[in-house]
Amino acid sequence: MNTNITLRDIAKALNLSISTVSRALTDSYQIGDETKQKVVAYAKEHHYIPNRMAKSLKEGKSRSIGVVVCSIDNNFVAQMLDGIDQYCTDHNYQLIIMQSKESFEQEKACVNLLYAGGIDGLLISPAYQTTDFDYLIDLQKSGLPIVLFDRLSDHINTHKVASDNFKGAYDATMHLINNGYKSIAHISSNTKLSMATDRFEGYKKALKDSGLTYREELVKFCDTSNATSLHQNLEKAIQELMALKNKPTGIFTATDQLTTKCLSLINQLGYQIPTDVALIGFSNTDLADALHPSLSTIHQPAFEIGNLATKQLLALIANKESEKYDTVLLDTTIQARVSSQKN
Amino acid sequence: MNTNITLRDIAKALNLSISTVSRALTDSYQIGDETKQKVVAYAKEHHYIPNRMAKSLKEGKSRSIGVVVCSIDNNFVAQMLDGIDQYCTDHNYQLIIMQSKESFEQEKACVNLLYAGGIDGLLISPAYQTTDFDYLIDLQKSGLPIVLFDRLSDHINTHKVASDNFKGAYDATMHLINNGYKSIAHISSNTKLSMATDRFEGYKKALKDSGLTYREELVKFCDTSNATSLHQNLEKAIQELMALKNKPTGIFTATDQLTTKCLSLINQLGYQIPTDVALIGFSNTDLADALHPSLSTIHQPAFEIGNLATKQLLALIANKESEKYDTVLLDTTIQARVSSQKN
DNA sequence: TGGTTATACTAAAACCTTTTAGTAATAGTT
DNA sequence: AACTATTACTAAAAGGTTTTAGTATAACCA
């Protein structure tokens, strides 16, 4: 427990009123220079630290925001959190991070705890499982500013920041096609969130624009909500794909986890990349260069997504009446490496 | 802003006093069953949420802890944070994360902000730069429970949790020796923290126990405080090592970043692993298997370190007078792969 | 009947701030 | 001299909770 001195202590020591001390410390015009200096000096000498609880209680603001992500232990998420944290630190907000672990129930629990904890605003990247946004809309109605980031949904109207998933997927698929791969599989995550559908649409559009026919058996949706099911589902998916009579020559994977795990599994199953099958996918891993073979990726501006989402949230906190909401989609970049090279 | 109802609202609505309502909600023996039920029902119906600021102010506790790490965007750190978060969530504590970015000044700023923010305890993994622990000792004296994790120091007396770095380093070095590599370099981080010296000692002990002579020119300390200097320093270090007349046949790297980056750079510089030089190092990357070549690692129980450190901290918060402090060192595990295999 | 004891409730203080509404004293204006 | 303005301060309320110290009523006992 803080055993700190309070305004009252300073007031008593200097024979002033509490309000004078409070005002002196906030450099109010109502206080004379001499008094101000005395107060400030005393406060510094005795390490006065304003009590945040009291201040928050009084002001009805906590200068903290909550963020809910699927998992901290996720390379891409960590990069976004870095961007969020930087903006918060620069603007004197505290950051409270919670994990949904891809469970809708847990996500709801997190959000409720954060709300009860008195956050001034919420940043949320919904769990894959989540389809119901009503509880968020309720909170929004009762005055909590909310910004969606990374994983968006049309079911709630607010500021949203993410990658341009459609374009990223289109680029990735086009890249494979341009490098001579004409039979392209798509492996994505089993979720209703627009992220997955956008990427799926980008993939289909690229096929269409290239005059290739869309084949349903080349598309797999895996449960990626935890490492075990990811592994099992993905292994099964790859095996099924490679067992097709007309098997894919290239694969486009839709998420970070899927992409790196896919590379591992293809190697493990004894196929050569890109000779047997080429691979490109969404991933922000720093190790793309060092993988076997080096991995072609669609890279998302993770830091910027976090940063911008936080900026939007703080703006929303500052003036609540904003009735026009933006959806910002940031460009991905394609990083071509060996795993998808012409052969 | 929470537009929530308060105890006063409930009291007014039910024609009771505020204290009765407060007590009814905490199921006090002083309140009759009928009244309790009425209050609880009304509270539930109107979504009463206790105001955390008011409660914290009153109780002098915030049920939140602060954690300072070098960077969120770091695989190993993220795993520890996962462990910390889990323990916090399970015990109803809020977690406030801040980053030092390996700067002592920033670390101090973080800690001060957290302290001012009213945390009940602090979890800290000091920056590489940090050598001065006096500011932490001061905070400790004024009643803030502190637990050091991952990166320890002898300059402060408190609970500490980390890996058994000495043993991990010893095992790694021994592994190389046993696989036939007799000229072993050690690349570590440029820090005064015991983590680095422990690993260095483990390396030397393994050489000694194997009758190999320690050669100073085989040991490099790199500035790893940011990606750019890591890259530059490490590249230089590797080039210098490989330019030696009696050049190393194996390298043992001391940190996650150094290990993976080292693999990248060795490949990039055109050497074959493990033929030209073998590699093993501390790393918790999930992608060890998928790297080229697959990477031998010393794996730290990151989640457990975070989890246990948090447990110790909450225990310290619960009863402050604990005068006996523990240092717990958890075992690392060696994961041998191609990068260090016999050749 | 008088006295104790539970029972069921309440008033008010306390936690520490910020802020509203004020006071007292001096200076400036006509 | 009578007025307003400015300066420098203070008292007290408010924010929502928990808790201390109480009160009033009914029940029990001798």
TrEMBL record, chains A, B:
Pfam families: LacI (PF00356), Peripla_BP_3 (PF13377). The keyword Translocase does not apply. SUPFAM superfamilies: lambda repressor-like DNA-binding domains, Periplasmic binding protein-like I. Signal peptide: none annotated. The keyword Transcription regulation applies. InterPro entries: HTH_LacI, LacI/GalR-like_sensor, Lambda_DNA-bd_dom_sf, Peripla_BP_I. PROSITE patterns: HTH_LACI_2. Residues 5-59 form the HTH lacI-type domain. Keywords: DNA-binding, Transcription, Transcription regulation. One of its GO terms (molecular function) is DNA binding. PANTHER family: LACI-RELATED TRANSCRIPTIONAL REPRESSOR, TRANSCRIPTION REGULATOR, MEMBER OF GALR FAMILY. This is LacI family DNA-binding transcriptional regulator.
